[in-house]
Amino acid sequence: MAESLKQTEQQFLEYVKKMTAYNEAIGLMYWDMRTGAPKQGLEQRSEVIGMISSEVFRMSTSEEMAAYIAELSGQENLSEVTLKTLEECKKDYDRNKKIPAEEYTEYVILQSKAESIWEDAKASSDFEMFRPYLEKLVEMNKRFISYWGYEGNKYNTLLDMYEPGVTVETLDQVFHQLREKIVPLVQQISESQNKPGTSFLFKHFEKDKQRDFSLKVLEQMGYNFKAGRLDETVHPFATGLNPGDVRVTTKYDETDFRTAVFGTIHEGGHALYEQNISSGLVGTPLCTGTSMGIHESQSLFYENFVGRHFSFWKKNYELLKEYASGQFNDVSIEDFYRAINESKPSLIRIEADELTYPLHIIIRYEIEKGLFNDEINVKDLPTIWNEKYEQYLGVKPEDDGLGVLQDVHWAGGSFGYFPSYALGYMYAAQLKNSMLKDLPNYDEILEEGNLLPIKEWFTKNVHQFGKLKKPLEILNDVTGEGLNAQHLIDYLYDKYSKVYQLN
Amino acid sequence: MAESLKQTEQQFLEYVKKMTAYNEAIGLMYWDMRTGAPKQGLEQRSEVIGMISSEVFRMSTSEEMAAYIAELSGQENLSEVTLKTLEECKKDYDRNKKIPAEEYTEYVILQSKAESIWEDAKASSDFEMFRPYLEKLVEMNKRFISYWGYEGNKYNTLLDMYEPGVTVETLDQVFHQLREKIVPLVQQISESQNKPGTSFLFKHFEKDKQRDFSLKVLEQMGYNFKAGRLDETVHPFATGLNPGDVRVTTKYDETDFRTAVFGTIHEGGHALYEQNISSGLVGTPLCTGTSMGIHESQSLFYENFVGRHFSFWKKNYELLKEYASGQFNDVSIEDFYRAINESKPSLIRIEADELTYPLHIIIRYEIEKGLFNDEINVKDLPTIWNEKYEQYLGVKPEDDGLGVLQDVHWAGGSFGYFPSYALGYMYAAQLKNSMLKDLPNYDEILEEGNLLPIKEWFTKNVHQFGKLKKPLEILNDVTGEGLNAQHLIDYLYDKYSKVYQLN
């Protein structure tokens, strides 16, 4: 009996390993598509990706999978990796099996249609064009929630897909707190007389030199080039194919070096996470970041707490000057620092700075929550959107292309995703607070340019576990508390008071 | 009944499409491994490739495949694509099923062990170290032949794997003819007083400039960059993932530009073949070159009949000078042409010129044929090898590393592969002869640098068919005759008499 259980466990792990192998192949095909695959091969490549993805989906919902779940669930003497893998597989299985097959197919078709309509609607700022698709997407997601069930709030079921354990109850509280504190700070800054000069940021900076500097920074961060590479794409990303192959991409703007430099640092933060997951998790679904939010905490930590920190530039400003062609010669490090930390309310989320960014997310959160609790209708979204932007950020979109239509997420049916971005900021600030206890010389570490202790701290406390620990479990284990917005608020007040010389 | 047959046909094609999709993913992973995949991810990547390859193997020998073969074989009203696909699948199925599973596994392990031992044996010129593995490989292949059966000559079964339809009877005749004619020509050349000067070939030629020139030449050939790309590797290759994605790689030697330029032209010839296969064959095993030999005819045609043709350089020599830094300034086009067509007996096959190359192949053919007809023993290979090199090429290896151990093929169990290379030369010369009837202005085409008519001729007569036609079928349809060594002999006599000013 025990012998046969051991055998089933082995077979289950082999089965899962095959699914992981297929996913790794798919991951490489996506990377290739986005970094230089020949255009004319893409139609066939998409078919290949589709066929292999279908096979993974089939395996995740097969009778064989059902049998493994039935036989292994509740068994003792299984390894921790098996238990957690089983848990992930069961979650997937339940989620996928509860939707009737015809509805799932209808939904996949709707998604792809909606994305293509959304592109046109955004380009022509025509919300009415997109509205029926968005209504249908919301309606189908509501039906899915009824199949899946929910606890407390219907929207929790969607949140759980991206940030397991995080609920409306928690988010209401932290987002309220953030909003109450950030809105007046943003207000104060926009009235400040001490705005930084930024014109020197936009001078010509050669692409190859930006790349060379970015590589230097990745190296300082402890990114392992034997387990990765840096390529160019339109939309930067990091992808962990396995811990020995985690690739970073970036984008170069020759009249704004910040795109590549902060973009690379951001993606580098994601990459460090994937490179340092315990090798014992390779070949299982646990071998990736535990959630969108924790992943984002790593990228944002490096982008903001490292890349936009004064001490980091004490080490690197002279180096940057060497790569640039004279653009910073007359600029003091203090002026440079203030310029790269400029904060200004804006319309577009992906262009927002770290202070205003959470407000963009809160707006989307409030809307999504309203939609799934029947408090907001899709037809009213443009009005609600614009009102909230005016209220929280003091700006108003001229048209829906710059407003409610700006993000692809809803067109893809990704409701519940947005909050992860803001969680990333809060997690990062909380982790930083705990890190300071172990690394009280944090500023010196940055000044010396040897960032390895930071990477090692994250590997020990976050990276290595992959999905073995849930996001809030990691947070609790490291910080001794749950989600707490105060750390982010303190950081933002402290930093921006100085940058804008507020009193 | 007819309805259900139609259905089975569709299901069979879907089944095959899935296998093709897996192979495309594997192809991309290999390309990636050889062009810059991070080292530390390779162990896991190999596992992924192994798992997906196993799945393809499983599918090719499954009960489902057996059922398709049984149900569809002999049926009328199937499309030509289905019929030929079925034929390919049946051939694979029979080949794989006739070997007992344990023996197959034993063989795979032996192969990989033998390759690794061979590397060491070659490095230390120690044939005795490699001998037991080679003996075992030959022995197992003999046993496989007994499982598979043979017609006429046991070695035919091995030849058929690489060049379907080509037999010992044919090869004996053409190789005898080639040997009788080439050996005295090589002899005459080595005694010639009119040897070309070549020292200017080995001056410094910047890598990036070599790349730029290579791209220009690919463009002239009609290589479609929207369906391909050029990368750098240690061992150049071309890979057709699908007709819209056919990639070329090359190698740069800054003190010998010929490596990159002729290498790119050679691989470009392979690539044109794969880019121009009919789109109706995508998703089937027919969507690739019909045989090793016909593939090689395309690469060798472009390398020698285009790239080493005087008219080609009439167009391109000035361009080459622009990319080079002064290296050819004092060199007339006539001297340049003679230099790149130098012929000299040498020990190493992959470094041989087009005149001596076939002799390297004939030696290997005679040895393989002897091995599988029990006329040669593995233990005598070094002696036999060296004797033949002295007899045909007038050179004698100092050690077995430069002799019998130089090629990886036997270590990988690829017996029957070598003849394809020489067939490529003969096919190319025969095709050229037929092409001249349609394109009598061939030399002018080269001089003008618009090589598209050549590509179009090949597409019409060779490329488009993929594996729909067998190699000798293509040869017959295009040239109206079977394999005929005379065209290659005429070409070599004509060309080398001029290059060496023989009388």
Automatic annotation (TrEMBL), chains A, B:
InterPro entries for this protein: Peptidase_M32_Taq
Swiss-Prot/TrEMBL catalytic activity: Release of a C-terminal amino acid with broad specificity, except for -Pro
Taxonomic superkingdom: Bacteria
Record keywords, A-Z: Carboxypeptidase, Hydrolase, Metal-binding, Metalloprotease, Protease, Zinc
Enzyme class: hydrolase
Cofactor field: Zn(2+)
Binding site for Zn(2+): H266, H270, E296
GO BP: proteolysis
Protease is among the record's keywords: yes
Keyword field contains Zinc: yes
Residue numbers annotated as active site: E267
Cofactor note: Binds 1 zinc ion per subunit.
Molecular-function GO terms, alphabetical: metallocarboxypeptidase activity; zinc ion binding
SUPFAM superfamilies given in the database record: Metalloproteases ('zincins'), catalytic domain (SSF55486)
Pfam family, one: Peptidase_M32
Assigned EC number: 3.4.17.19
Family: Belongs to the peptidase M32 family.
Function: Broad specificity carboxypetidase that releases amino acids sequentially from the C-terminus, including neutral, aromatic, polar and basic residues.
The protein's name in its UniProt record: Metal-dependent carboxypeptidase
Lineage: Bacteria, Bacillati, Bacillota, Bacilli, Bacillales
